[in-house]
Amino acid sequence: LKNIRIAIDGPASSGKSTVAKIIAKDFGIIYLDTGAMYRAATYIALNNDLGEDATAIIALLKENPIAFGNSLEGQLVYLGEVDVTDAIRQNDVTNNVSKISAIAEIREYLVEAQREIASHGGIVMDGRDIGTVVLPDAELKIFLVASVDERAERRFKENLQKGIETDLDTLKVEIAERDRKDSTRKVSPLKQAEDAILLDTTGISISDVVAKIENYAKER
Ligand code: C5P
Fold first, then answer.
1. Looking at residue 72, what is its pLDDT?
2. Per-residue pLDDT of the chain (220 residues; tens, 9 = 90+)
3. Which end of the chain has the least Cβ crowding within 10 Å, N or C?
4. 162 and 154 in contact (C-beta within 8 Å)?
5. How far is the CA of 182 from the centre of ligand 1 (A)?
6. For this UniProt entry, which residues form the secretion signal (predicted)?
7. Sign of the CA dihedral 145, 163, 161, 80?
8. Are 3 and 120 in contact (CB under 8 A)?
9. Which residues face 8 on adjacent strands?
């Protein structure tokens, strides 16, 4: 299990990062939040008024590399020396990330970085195209889904804890819209890999979802 590569894909707020973090800890493997990388690229684009200029965005990403750290409250995300952990979860980034993540050059750049990180051993990666594009030969692929209502409620509670103000109905619309954009884009759309296991987490506790995935991993 030390060298297993687990790909967890699925729509927004389906619980991917929550379960991935627990599995990484239980198995002693790396956790990589690929969504945070697209969010960081989006943050750079917005903050520097770069629009969808991929060359400029990538140049700034090279100057200020994405890095991950740890704190008692959880994983930290850096751009160069700057802690952007909270900034990349704000509404402006969330509502613009699908536009930036649809750009082929940005995806190429980030996918290469993701594969490099995965080349060092056991890893659980969550995102949209991990099982289909980033790690097509991952030992275990999970496609995590949940109803829009439940996902909006989860995000609502998460946001409350982070002090981000949102309205539940607005969240439902935004989540559905982000899924639509992520699933219909030309490059690497959100799609279940043929050999991925579909897990619907609606009404299922986090610990039950984790237990299921860990059992699949042990069977491999
Ligand atoms: O996982 P999270 O919701 O933080 O991802 C934010 C956005 O990043 C997604 O809505 C999607 O547009 C993009 N993304 C992607 N491919 C990935 C991970 C995230 O396109 N592997």
1. 81
2. 899 999 999 999 999 999 999 999 999 999 999 999 999 999 999 999 999 999 999 999 999 999 999 888 889 999 999 999 999 999 899 999 999 999 999 999 999 999 999 999 899 999 999 999 999 999 999 999 999 999 999 989 988 988 888 899 999 999 999 999 999 999 999 999 999 999 999 999 999 999 999 999 999 8
3. C
4. no
5. 8
6. none
7. positive
8. no
9. 126, 142
Spatial contact of 139 and 29, defined as CB atoms under 8 Å apart: no
Residue nearest to atom 11 of ligand 1 (CA): 98
What is the helix (H) or strand (E) element at residue 139, kind and residue range? Answer: none
Alpha carbons 86 and 77: distance in angstroms, whole number: 9
Residue minimizing CA distance to atom 20 of ligand 1: 101
Ligand 1 site, CB within 6 A: 12, 34-35, 38-39, 97-98, 101, 127-130, 178, 182
The total of other beta-carbon atoms located within 10 Å of residue 22's CB is 19
Using the mean position of ligand 1's atoms as its centre, give its distance from the Cα of residue 34 in Å: 7
Decide: 209 and 155 in contact? Cβ < 8 Å: no
Ligand 1, atom 16, lies closest to the CA of: 128
Residue 128 Rama label (left phi>0; alpha psi -120 to 50; beta): alpha
Which residues, 6+ apart, have CB-to-CB distance to 192 below 8 Å? 9, 131, 143, 198
Cβ 171 vs Cβ 151: under 8 Å: no
Q: What is the pLDDT of residue 25?
A: 96
